[in-house]
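One such shown below:
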Amino acid sequence: MGIITDSYTLFYREMLIFKKNIAMNAVRSTIFPLLFVLLLGSFGSSPKNVPVAVVNYASGPAALKFINALQAGSGVVIASQTNQQEAMSMLSDGSVAGVVVIPSGFSTSYGSHSQIQVYLDNSQPQSAAVLNAQVDSAAAQLGASAPQAPSISVVTNYAYGASSNYISFVVGGILVMVASFGAIFSAGFTMIGDRQLGNLKAFLTTPINNLSVLLSKIAYGTFQSVFSAYVGLVIGLLYGATIAAGLVGFIELLWIILLVGLGFGALAIALATRARDQQTYALIGQTIALPLSFLGGAFVPVTLLPKFLLPIVELDPLTYAVNAVRDIMIKGFLPVPTLISTSAILLFFALVMSTLALILFRDTSKQI
């Protein structure tokens, strides 16, 4: 029998076990994302010093007074005063959370009718909400001091044509976290279970290629990862999240989650080859998966993390997965270069973890 045929046969065995315990697996895959959606979806943190770019086409005391009112307090900080093209470029690459445009003639029209244009990247809803509130407050202060009735209006434009709520932000991170946990707590446990029951030793004494055993376990972990993530997605959609990219975004989500499951399924096998019991493995797996999810921005934007953690954030594969999923769900599209680079990073992580798992598995199989 070939490696592919052997791998499929062993994977089919895993699926039969999954089917036999379908009720327990369904409950487990539902409770975890449900709790996080309910808990995290009900509140959000209010970031401080939200960076904003200001485009000032006006001159005079009114425009200056508005800018001073905008950055009063600790909610908003003006990162740049520049032209509109450069400001929108900064918004696109994530350097700022919004762009505020003060129109030409603002000082002369102030008191009769003035419009402040605000452009927001709503992939970080908390920052967008803080900036929106601060702009409204500054406009109200300036209008209240006018000799005539307040007449300053704020026109909000969500960047990339997307508008969203906090639940979409939360669900995007939860999907990636659930995918990584699903792989960790399925592939690894089935490996340890087979070893404790003697099934693994039986497999290794047959003509089945060792690589087939490894591949079937990784495949099962990937399946559980995708299954858990899409149960979480259904829960999130029912709770109010949206996929702004539509059907194409749904397919891209499946691809990103699949790659996350593949990498963490391989990581799970690597860990399971060294853990002698399920309790030890669960502790190690949780100790690795939870910090990676946190540092990847699953709970809060990585811009709110301490600066000394940023190098780790950049090395965390979940950072790129979370950003891609949120682009799909909130911004409404995932640029092709971003999709390619994210896929390459996740595939590289999966390849490294698979190689490590293979080395450790072959070493461990000699001792069984």
About this structure: Residues 50-161 form a domain with the abc type-2 transporter like fold fold (CATH 3.40.1710.10). The first helix runs from residue 3 to 20. The first strand starts at residue 50 and ends at 56. The beta strands are 50-56, 76-81, 98-102, 114-120, 152-158.
